[in-house]
């Protein structure tokens, strides 16, 4: 029997993030991709407005959430994976190399001894090429490192959810200068995505539209090959790496990197409360930025 899925996108205009609900039409089973937890840095307050939009959609459509998929440990928004799991169920999954990211940031934040960089905060760790199912629809996890060492893309029913590898063709690609990031690896990962059939729908995790264009998140492999400003056909690895490294050297540290990473390497869980019952996030002084991260 031919499988069919629907994809619903949810754009968060505070962090320019796109989350998705993928639903298998026959079984009404679903996967959520890269959900956002609202965070006001000024007050240190979290909120669930974005996540509640996803929950409303899931309930309206009568979907059963099987998976909450993270493409990577995001540095620009907090994940609402844990909150969504409490509300809807499903297994929180990410790529197996998250352990490397956890080890890096456990050290950087001097996290508590009880935080183990072993991936056990997640319900499932995907290996490269692993096949899983959303209802009756087969899906595949692809390792696409470069932006971070642990990025995954998810291929589902003629679509690929690329996380922070490719952006829309007029925006290009993600930065590759975070700890463990690598422009050469990102180029190879992008080639892997662009080797999918040309009609494959490409769904990105962010859009930073140029002036005059509304936010958008869907293109195709063919469109990316023809027009991506960083990696269209004919751009060599050497050209890409030179461009990416020069551009990354000009980019500011993301506003929410410190709070995001501390929550996202715990699968969307805030740090354990201290003896007053309050959870705290750390701000390491003079550690990241200024060419050090
Ligand atoms: Fe990212």
Can you walk me through this structure?
This is MBL fold metallo-hydrolase. Keywords: Metal-binding. Residues 17-206 form the Metallo-beta-lactamase domain. Pfam families: Lactamase_B. It comes from Pelomonas lactea. The protein has 293 residues and is α/β, with parallel strands linked by helices. It has a single domain, classed as Metallo-beta-lactamase, Chain A, CATH 3.60.15. It is 24% helix and 24% strand. The protein contains seven helices and 15 strands. It has helices at residues 49-60, 81-88, 98-109, 183-194, 221-227, 237-248, 257-264, and strands spanning 5-12, 17-24, 29-33, 36-40, 45-47, 64-69, 78-79, 91-95, 124-126, 131-134, 137-143, 152-156, 159-161, 201-203, 218-220. The strands form three sheets. A six-stranded mixed beta sheet has the order 1-2-3-6-8-9, covered by helices on one side. A six-stranded mixed beta sheet has the order 10-11-12-13-14-15. The protein has a three-stranded antiparallel beta sheet with strand order 5-4-7. Strand 12 (152-156) and strand 13 (159-161) form a beta hairpin. Helix 1 (49-60) runs parallel beside helix 2 (81-88) and helix 4 packs across helix 6. The longest helix is centred in the N-terminal third of the chain and has 12 residues, at 49-60. The termini are far apart. The structure holds fe (ii) ion. The site of fe (ii) ion (FE2) has 6 residues, from loops.
């Amino acid at each position: 029997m031919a499988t069919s899925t629907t994809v619903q996108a949810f754009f968060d205009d505070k962090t320019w993030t796109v989350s998705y609900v993928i639903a298998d039409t026959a079984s009404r089973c679903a996967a959520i991709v890269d959900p956002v937890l609202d965070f006001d840095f000024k007050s240190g307050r979290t909120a669930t407005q974005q996540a509640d939009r996803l929950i409303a959609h899931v309930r309206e459509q009568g979907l059963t959430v099987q998976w909450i998929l993270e493409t990577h440990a995001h540095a620009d928004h907090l994940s609402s994976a844990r909150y969504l799991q409490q509300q809807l169920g499903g297994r929180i999954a990410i790529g197996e190399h998250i352990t490397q990211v956890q080890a890096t940031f456990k050290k950087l934040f001097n996290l508590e001894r009880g935080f183990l960089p072993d991936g056990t905060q997640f319900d499932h760790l995907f290996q490269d090429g692993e096949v899983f199912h959303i209802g009756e629809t087969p899906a595949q996890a692809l390792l696409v490192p470069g932006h971070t060492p642990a990025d995954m893309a998810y291929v589902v029913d003629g679509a690929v959810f690329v996380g922070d590898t490719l952006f829309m063709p007029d925006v290009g690609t993600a930065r590759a200068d975070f700890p463990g990031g690598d422009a050469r690896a990102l180029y190879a990962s992008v080639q892997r995505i662009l080797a999918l059939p040309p009609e494959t729908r490409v769904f990105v995790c962010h859009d930073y539209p140029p002036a005059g264009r509304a936010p958008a998140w869907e293109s195709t492999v063919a469109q990316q090959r023809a027009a991506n400003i960083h990696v269209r056909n004919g751009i060599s690895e050497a050209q890409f790496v030179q461009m990416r490294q020069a551009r990354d050297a000009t980019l500011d540290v993301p506003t929410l990197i410190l709070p995001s990473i501390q929550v996202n390497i715990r699968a969307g869980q805030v740090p354990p409360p201290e003896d007053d019952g309050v959870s705290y996030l750390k701000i390491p002084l003079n550690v990241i930025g200024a060419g050090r991260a």
